[in-house]
Design brief:
The chain has 64 residues and is mainly α. It has one domain. 47% of the residues lie in helices and 6% in strands. The N and C termini lie far apart (70 Å). This is Phage protein.
């Protein structure tokens, strides 16, 4: 008798980083830190979440 294989895939939670760690990182050094602190209000973000928030804000300001 053969056993059925378990086909459940492991779902990984996205890695979240502390707001201060993101702001101090090389990845975010191109953003104005004072504005970034105001825009990133939650204690933790994924890299993608933080970049999306900052890019949306700064892109809107450049268009005007």
């Amino acid at each position: 008798m053969s056993k059925a294989k378990d086909t459940k895939e492991t779902v990984r939670e996205p890695v979240k980083f502390n707001r201060e760690a993101l702001l101090a990182s090389k990845e975010f050094s191109g953003y104005q830190p004072d504005f970034a602190k105001v825009l990133l209000t939650k204690p933790e973000y994924t890299l993608e979440e933080a970049k999306e928030i900052l890019n949306k804000f700064f892109e809107n300001k450049e268009e005007k």
